[in-house]
Amino acid sequence: MSWTIIITLIAVGIVLVLLEIFLIPGFISGVLGMIAIIVGVYQAYKTYGATSGHITLSIAVAFVVLLMILLFRSGTWRRVSLGDSIDSRVNVIEEDKVKKGDTGQVIARLQPAGKAEINGDIYEVHSMTGIIEVGTEVSVSKVEGYRIFVKPLKS
After folding, report:
1. Dist CA 104 CA 122 (whole Å)
2. Alpha-carbon gap, residue 58 to 134, rounded angstroms
3. What pTM did the predictor assign?
């Protein structure tokens, strides 16, 4: 087997492993890449002897390590990773602020959860009776921990 084929096998293997790490989640391209690298190094040992095999193995390992270092330092992870953070929070309900019997107005449709303004503050609330449209006056039925349950006021 010629050096051209051995170098091509190792190069294709390295590309497949890098694709596995950075682009294609899964298993197949990484395994195929490792197989290609191993076959390329094995063929160097088999065709050209131990010294050439050692050199080929050393160069392949050094090249993979160098590429990994360059890719990590170049900020590749920042470009392909999700940069958003979740900044929502659970209702923080002070005991004096919301209690059974308080009234408010729905500002985001309750189906069965949504938002309502109660005592001048906006809370995530849960409907006791199903869907409640925006603008409907509601009263607090119960407060359990961080969950507020409401029902529409009868007109």
Report:
1. 9
2. 68
3. 0.49
146, 113 in Cβ contact below 8 A?
A: no
Q: Which residue matches tokens 């009776």?
A: 129
Q: Say if residue 23 is in the same domain as residue 71.
A: yes
pLDDT by position in tens, the chain (length 155): 788 999 999 999 988 988 887 777 778 888 999 999 999 999 999 999 999 999 999 999 998 888 878 877 777 666 666 667 766 666 677 777 888 889 999 999 998 899 999 988 889 999 988 899 999 999 999 988 888 999 998 75
How far, in Å, CA of 42 to CA of 49, rounded?
A: 10
Q: List the domain range (segments joined by +) for residue 142.
A: 103-152
Residue 97 DSSP label = T
